[in-house]
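Hi R.,

Here's the chain you asked about this morning:
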Amino acid sequence: MSAQKKIILPILLALFLICSLAMPTAASATYQVQAGDSLFLIAQRYGTTVGALQDANGIYGNIIYPGEVLALPTNTSRVHQVQWGETLWTIAAAYGTTVAAIQDANGFWGTEIYAGENLVIPGGTSLTRSTTPASPVNSYVPSEELDLLARMIQAEAEGEPYIGKVAVGAVILNRVRDPRFPNTISGVLFAPWEFEPVMNDRFWQVTPSQESYNAAQDAMAGWDPTDGAVFFYNPAQSTSYWIFTRPVINQIGRHLFAL
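And the predicted structure, written out as tokens:
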């Protein structure tokens, strides 16, 4: 073999390896971009994410052109159409994923979703409608009880993050389960000297937001961010010496949660 060939062959091999590494990731299908398409809309349609489309096609921006052929990445994502009354947490629980993963896959940070909206569900299992989060209060709660729970969440946790709203609802529902307290939501809320918003009438003055209703539903579905607390209080505002004697097990937002 000539010296020239000995030099050229390694160069060709190196170029081949570089091109192989630069190729987009494996995909099971392709899609030709239509007028009006965007990476987000295509990702929604095919149950994937913008990031996965970018990785599969070796692109970094969001600009695509009609006629362009995109590789569709192979993944286990699905698209779920939101039904009335669903929340991110109940959807995540049904698919075996997390709220944060759904938020990341759909490119948003909040918790508000709307009936009819399509959500990309990353990974997880197939939807099982019988999948139920642990320890719901019971199979049916009258609408007036839900309204009372949402009203208390609004009164006690209006300025708290969403998980803090769910946590307040969970404390009330933990009391419903605990034999030391009344066994209904209304019984717990209206027990003498228990909740300041009831005593100062703020409870009846607030209007529950949709987020408070969602938090009430998530709490009733079994989400308990407090890990079993039956008391909560804001240490910067509480004037009860007794509440400071309770063992604190969690802090969410400005509230401490105790046993």
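Residues 49 and 134 are 30 Å apart (CA to CA).

Let me know if you need anything else.
M.
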